[in-house]
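Lab meeting tomorrow. Please check the following:
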Amino acid sequence: MATKPTYEELEQKSDSDIMNRQQPRLKSIIFGLVFFWTAVIAFSTVWDIHARKATTREMASKEAHAHFDKDQTIRYWASKHGGIYVYTDLLTPPNPYLRHVPERDITTPAGKKLTLMNPAYMVRQLNKEFADLYNIIGHITSLKSLRPEKEPILGSGMHSKYLNRV
């Protein structure tokens, strides 16, 4: 005949049954929380990468527009004044494309030689200086280029069309 279990034995058995039943449930909750947290971190990382790319693109676009506006302002200012005269030297020889201008090259009363610099020539030289100083490369071009060595760069045709409208 079977012996009747004691109260302590029943209590111990019932505690161990409860623990055995709750362990798989606890494991699933922990696994679910770890999976959820990993998904949150992954989503946050992807979102952050996307936001940084968008911000970088926007900042680059704004900076490019600022440089373009600077070049346009310089060209406008120089055009308004009919160009400027600068000292002739190795870096600034007379512009061969202004050969037809009667006073392209002049001499001051003190004997210094000056040459007329048109707006496009000014911007080209300023872009070269800017590139040397700040490593920011600017390029002016046109669909109707007068200088064969300055044809639009491959892929800049769309940009040239935009610039011709400006």
